[in-house]
Amino acid sequence: MQIPSKQLENAVNQLSSLPGIGRRSALRLALFLLKKSETEVMDFTEAIRDMRTQIHFCQHCHNISDHIVCEICSNTNRDSLVICVVEDIRDVMAIESTGTYKGVYHVLGGLISPMDGIGPGQLNIQTLVEKAERIEPKEIIFALSPTMEGDTTNFYLYKKLRHLTVFITALSRGVSVGTELQYADELTISRSLEQRSEFKPV
Predict the structure, then answer these.
(1) Each residue of 13-45: b (16+ CB within 10 Å) or e?
(2) How far apart are CA 74 and CA 151, in angstroms?
(3) Average pLDDT in the 82-104 region?
(4) Cβ proximity of 55 and 65 under 8 Å
(5) What does DSSP assign to residue 118?
(6) How far is CA 31 from CA 4, 14, 36, 53, in A?
(7) Hey, CA dihedral for 175, 182, 79, 128, is it positive or negative?
(8) Alpha-carbon distance 76 to 60, whole Å?
(9) Hey, what domains does the chain have and what are their CATH numbers?
(10) Span 27-55, mean pLDDT?
(11) Tell me, what's the pLDDT at 174?
(12) Looking at residue 46, what is its pLDDT?
């Protein structure tokens, strides 16, 4: 695809680096932005820049936040002794959309996946263990996707936490095996939370 402008080509290259955006889609987006007013484009780019520079990762749970501590962790109406362990922030949003969970979260930032070169040391696992040792929660819920990577991560977490006197549970298999939690519907997630059971490694 021959692009007649170096500036347009640079924009296409940047847009096509986004997941799910090929060069044709990137060109269409770039041309769309080119038709917008300079003010609209500046508002767009400033929103992206502000997102990158002003969003924090909560110092308690690693969720994204506009503040050092996220609204969930700072909410005194939440049960801080019930911790729901999730893969990433999209899972927090999926569970929160059900309106049924009243505990707090811990965002791992991924799953253990040797095939992808992701080991335990690259995830927020140690901070979970340290937090559990410090506050002695009454329950830790494993709310990871029912995939091979999710099961591997669950088992590793269990080994790291089993020395504690904490009730460890996992979502019921209402979420289909192989399905990522963030794509499950609200009713399924809600029922999986309500019907959670004690985690027992195979």
Answers:
(1) eebbeeeeeeeeebbebbeeeeeeeeeeeeeee
(2) 30
(3) 95
(4) yes
(5) B
(6) 12, 13, 9, 26
(7) positive
(8) 14
(9) 6-54 (1.10.8.420), 77-198 (3.40.1360.10)
(10) 95
(11) 53
(12) 96
**The model's pTM:** 0.82
Phi, psi torsion values for 100, nearest 5 degrees:
-105, -20
3-state secondary structure of 51: helix
pLDDT in the model for residue 199: 86
What are the contacts of 106-114 at 24+ separation with CB within 8 A? 106/61, 106/62, 106/131, 107/61, 107/62, 107/63, 108/62, 108/144, 108/153, 109/62, 111/87, 111/144, 111/145, 111/147, 111/149, 111/150, 111/152, 111/153, 112/149, 112/152, 112/153, 112/156, 113/149, 113/152
What is the DSSP code (8-state) at residue 143?
-
How far apart are alpha carbons 146 and 175 in whole angstroms? 7
Average pLDDT value for the chain: 90
- How far CA 64 is from CA of 117, 132, 159, 165, in Å, comes to 24, 21, 27, 29
CB 161 within 8 A of CB 130: no
Q: Which residue has the tokens 């767009």?
A: 44
Give, in degrees to the nearest 5, the angle at Cα 158 between 143 and 97: 10
State how far the Cα of 15 lies from the Cα of 30, in Å rounded to an integer.
Answer: 8
Banded model confidence at residue 172, pLDDT cuts 50, 70, 90: confident
At 177 the pLDDT is 46
Q: Rounding to the nearest 10 degrees, give the CA dihedral for residues 98, 150, 162, 128.
A: -70
